[in-house]
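User: two proteins, same treatment. go.

Assistant:
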Amino acid sequence: MRHFETFSYRDASYRISPADNTSLYKEITSRITEIRIELEAYIKRQPEFLTSLTPVNLLPKAPEPAVLMAEAAELTGTGPMAAVAGTTASLAALRAAETLTTPRREIIIENGGDIFILPGADPEPVTAGIFSGIDSSFSNLALKVPPGARGTALCSSSSRMGHSLSLGDCDLCTVVSGNASLADAAATQGCNMVKAEADLGPAAEKISAIKGVTGVLIIKNKQLAIAGKMPEIVRHSDSEGLNKITGTFFL
């Protein structure tokens, strides 16, 4: 059974596994803090990076997280901060994994509905529940995510939940990719594109066509659109699901 612990830093809340490995857990939280400090220092140099809703040109010697976020913004047409949660989760997992001298442990980091899964030495599928609202027709659906050798991201955006800015009217847009920065930004863009049920199909097709996106699932009211190659959709019966939600996803 996977063990998770909540970690908060600044305005963000994370759920992290493994929580039963004290040294690895501390390494992961240290890396999260490190990445946020890097970004905060860069934003002081380029305030536009924080506020822009469209791609920006980076200043020289931008740190790794800013570079990844800017690249994702270019591919999706969003501002770079649309990729901050996915970027932080994936970089923290990958940097922490580099410190391991024993067989690699599975690392899962969830940040407000954005998840990065780095498989361990004996990889197993991860079932992630989809939460599109308490009254949603799809509240008991989940994705059974197979292990990806270099990690898999499931990132979600919603116009109705969470504190992130959304320009659409969408219950949930979830994007799967091996690139967490891209998945995060693409989920934001997909959500921005949906203002009516008729927008679901075109939005899903456009997002799935972005190079690097594996698949996308978008929900509005009682309608659902899927494009690309999504993990197997299953039903979950987790009675504790609502207690695990920090954004739009729970594990």
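Protein 2:
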Amino acid sequence: MHLSAESLDLQALLDKTADDRCGALVVFGGTVRLENEGQQVTAIDYTAHTALAEKTLREIEAEALERFGITHCRLQHRLGHLELGELSVLVVVRAGHRPEAFEAARWAIDTLKERVPIWKEEFYAAGGSEYLEGTPLQSKKSNRP
């Protein structure tokens, strides 16, 4: 499962991707941070178009395998209310060697942020909240006349 309302389990991803063929392991974890664009953050709510997000995460994993020649790529993202310091996203990449593992992990998290329909609403210490601008579901460029 790529999306979870429960805490993300790094050890489970490491166990699922364990592979003696791989000499490289790259793990990226994103957490809820205290400050964003000059405002003190107290929490974040993540929501998603679940079916489309799951599909897109699987596509990114498959594309990373093909593009970088890696052995494993796993992506997971939290949904729901997260407090400061909680893990919101995990990327686990295993490969024969480190260069492709690092490249694939960086590409995977950047592509996740660009393509996956997950939205975040930040809550602020000063009061109020705001949905952060993300990538639209449809490109601004259209082939329609």
